[in-house]
Prior knowledge:
Layout: H1 5-23, H2 35-46, E1 51-52, H3 53-60, H4 64-76, E2 80-83, E3 93-96, H5 98-118, H6 124-148
Antiparallel strand pairs: 1-3, 2-3
Amino acid sequence: MRNDPIFQIEYAVAVLVRLLTATRPHQPQVATLDRSAYLILHEVLTEKEPFAVQQLALRLNVDLSTMSRQVATMESKGLLNPMQVTDDARSHRVQATPTGRQQFESMRDARRQVYGQILHEWSPQDQEQLAQVLQRFTDSIRQYQSRMHPHDRPQSPPKASPK
């Protein structure tokens, strides 16, 4: 059983999640964002234009009502600004505030420092290989979720018809 790669992966992922939870940055000034806020800010900050909440739900594979609640909480904490960019009042878009950007960057830098310390004895090639395999694994999980739970996936917004 221990020679079975799926067995090894299953156990390694369980241990990985536990260990990473225990080693996250604990400085109060750094660990200010929960996981969902960190991921939402990451997505929002990668875009030049305000990000549609519905697109965030699709990108992060959560239902729209959950994403709307998370965004509302982040707006109330001053991490996101709501933006109205079209004539459609239903189109809720957001941008990161300077506070949101600063908290994201502080947490990202602290996380990178922790991972750098963990991987300091790894060669750059091994680090690159791990990055590629983890990205592939993440992509496979997203594909699996789409296949196994298509009804749970948020729906894409309908395309606007030309006027």
